[in-house]
Known about the structure:
Layout: E1 2-7, H1 10-17, H2 19-27, E2 32-33, H3 34-41, H4 45-57, E3 61-69, E4 72-79, E5 81-86, H5 107-131, H6 149-170, H7 193-196
Parallel strand pairs: 1-5
Antiparallel strand pairs: 2-4, 3-4
Amino acid sequence: MIEVGVIEEAGAAEVALDPIRARLLGLLAEPHSATSLAAVVGLPRQKVNYHLKTLETHGLVELVEERRKGNVTERVMRATAASFVISPIALSAVRPNPDRAPDRLSARWLLALAARLVQETGQLITGAARAGKPVATFALDGTVRFASAADRAAFTQELTAAVAALVGRYHDEQAPGGRDHRVIVAIHPKISETKES
């Protein structure tokens, strides 16, 4: 099972967002049969089986094994990923586009950038999986505590200058076989655990 799966089709997103199916997906981090799931969620086995077939049709769960119990063949299923991200590409024409956002200092522009990051990374993962190749990526994730707004402003100025210098040093428009890579650096106030809950 992979850690994070990408949902790129609107139909699969609709299926995953259904509350019952979302709960089943969470339970299917461990292999289950329709019978064992029915006992946990309190639904008839036939109803659970219907939801499992729908999830399987959209590639969200997979068959682990088939077990013979009397005259019945029990299918044991599990989720294809431990967690899922719905790519903005599933929203088709209404997906966020940072090129349309007029205010590049706004949080909404940052949100549109993040949405494009999810979309493009998802497409890279999907393409690499089909080709059986890894995707070369890099990311930093950390926290900085500014003493004042002035310090935050100074930090962003120095960070912008440092990134611009690095890009200027390594960017080669004429490199044969070179490949463009997107660079995104973002800073936003951190949400505390109590605010998230």
